[in-house]
Amino acid sequence: MKLSPRDAPGYFARPDPSRTGLLIYGVDAMRVALKRQEVIAALIGPQGEEEMRLTRIPGAELRKDPAMLQDAIKAQGFFPGARVAFVEDATDVITPIITDALTDWRTGDAQVIVTAGSLKAASKLRKLFETHNNAYAAAIYDDPPSKAEIEATLAKSGLNNVGTDAMRDLMTLAQELDPGDFRQTVEKLSLYMLGDESSVTSDDIAICAPASSEADLDDVLNIVAEARSGEIGPIMKRLKAQGVQPVGLCIAATRHFRSLYAAASDPGGAGQGIARVRPPVFGKRRDRMLRQAQNWGADRLQQALTLLTETDLQLRSAGQTAPAMALVERALIRLAMMARR
Questions:
Q1: Which of 180, 200, 202, 181 lies closest to 192, judged by CA?
Q2: Residues of the chain predicted below pLDDT 50
Q3: Rounded to whole angstroms, how far apart are CA atoms 252 and 224?
Q4: Angle separating helix axes 95-103 and 67-74, nearest 10 degrees
Q5: Segment 218-225 long-range contacts (CB within 8 Å, at least 24 positions apart)
Q6: 8 Å CB contact between 89 and 122
């Protein structure tokens, strides 16, 4: 039987132990692995693997030794509780072996959990589970997790008090990160909030979210965007000493001002525009960039982007003779002066 994308999350969280088996397949191996882990943990519990109630069988090894699956299904362990025979990286080649195992399955046997990559509609393995009267087949797509899935992930990590703004930031973050990185971020957030009964805020998420590659350049970009031209010289000396390249600094400035322009020019207003910026910004950094976008306005930000584009072209010009860092510093000072108008 097929598990629809709507019903699958609920079943993964509370699988039926009386079912013969479950096939989980999809292009993204990480997403498939996370769902498989969730199902197996729900079936055998946190101590199941230690109590030897889980048998792992690589698909390649099962092809060489077909009896492995039958033995795993029928074996009786020393500990009571549900058992799972897990076949990993299955392909159509081993479908006959799995077919025999499902045919011989009886109540009390280990449930068969199978994972596979992308399977076409004509796949024999997929058809086996989709047409079986006591087994399920679930396709895992690359869609971002729904709000319900995010809330379930938070609940498992003990995060039950999440503010509205924080939830919005988490949903945005879930769209940007792959499932494994998002899960690690939630676990980090859980540890950060350990013992704190207050609501999770956007600032908490900003602290725990993966740092962007431009994080070290934020200071100089904020100085420029906030018209603090007198502070540009000293910080430029520090950046140069740290080995920051002029072209990289110009690119970072262009990205920053492009984000400000996207926010300032949004039809719904700068507040709505900043929420759509990619990669997303959180907490105090988002509030700061929102103020910058509102202070500059779309017209001046467009002029700023023109100046940065001209500077970038000049840096890459074959006939360029002036010191590259001096060119960038002059452009940043001009931008800071522009912000005062």
A1: 200
A2: 212-215
A3: 12
A4: 30
A5: 218/285, 220/249, 220/332, 221/252, 221/253, 221/256, 222/288, 222/292, 223/336, 224/253, 224/332, 224/335, 224/336, 224/339, 225/256, 225/257, 225/260, 225/292, 225/296, 225/335, 225/339
A6: no
Nearest to 56 by CA among 136, 113, 129, 126: 113
Predicted confidence at residue 341, as pLDDT, reads 66
Q: Are 140 and 32 in contact (CB under 8 A)?
A: yes
Q: Tens of pLDDT along 225-234?
A: 999 888 888 8
**Inter-residue contact 84 to 54 (CB < 8 Å):** yes
Residues 73/79, Cβ–Cβ less than 8 Å: no
What is the per-residue pLDDT across 47-104, written as a single tens digit (0 to 9) for each? 898 889 999 999 999 999 999 999 999 988 788 889 999 999 999 999 999 999 999 9
192-211 burial code (b ≥16 CB/10 A, e <16) = ebeeeeeebbbbbbbebbee
Angle in degrees, 0-180, between the axes of helices 246-264 and 218-225, rounded to the nearest 10: 50
Residue 213: per-residue pLDDT: 40
